[in-house]
Amino acid sequence: MFESLGLNATLVAQIFNFLVLLIFLRVVVYKPLVNILVKRQELIYNNVKTAEDERKEAEALHQKYLQEMQKAKEDAQSVIQQAAKSGEAQAHQIIESAKAEAERVKEAALREIDREKEKAVAELRDQVAALSILVADKIIGNQITKDIQHNLVQEFIKEAGDLPC
User: What pLDDT does residue 133 have?
Assistant: First the structure.
């Protein structure tokens, strides 16, 4: 029967066996193999998705760290500027305090100079008064001539020159 068609029985048996094998493989092996491939595909997809999510999370974390570092840098700069301002203010306060102290010492020295000056003027007045009395006593005691007057003036100048001024 198959020979009239030009087919060999072995060939027909092989085709039949091949078709049975295909049906068997389709029923028994294909579904589990497809399931394994689907699971493998899902696993790869999930791994890629997880890696992408982790990459995004790492990028967000990196950006957060960069922002925190920038904020810390700005805070440090602010602290440095505040410390510099505080130092300048303290230096200014020290300078002002030193100026006030110098002014106080200057005023005290000027008061002391004025007191010493007043004291010296008072002593000088006492000495001038004593010399005046002495001169008047000499004048009254002697008749004044031009020579005596000249001698008295010279004597007064000599005594006045010996005064501590």
Answer: 67
User: What secondary structure does DSSP assign to 99-118, as a single string?
Assistant: HHHHHHHHHHHHHHHHHHHH
- The least confident of 40-54, 90-104, 119-133 is 119-133
**Cα gap 105→99, rounded to integer Å:** 10
Angstrom distance (rounded) from CA 123 to CA 149: 26
Percent of the chain having pLDDT more than 70? Answer: 81
Q: List the one residue out of 31, 27, 1, 2 whose CA is nearest residue 14.
A: 2
As a 3-state breakdown, the chain gives helix, strand, coil percent values, each rounded to 5, of 90, 0, 10
- Closest to 160 in 3D by CA, of 133, 124, 136: 124
In this predicted structure, the answer to whether residue 159 has a pLDDT above a threshold of 80 is no
- pTM, entire model: 0.41
Average pLDDT of the chain?
85
What are the C-alpha distances in Å from 68 to residues 58, 74, 86? Answer: 15, 10, 26
Q: What residue segments make up the domains of the chain, in order of their start?
A: 9-161
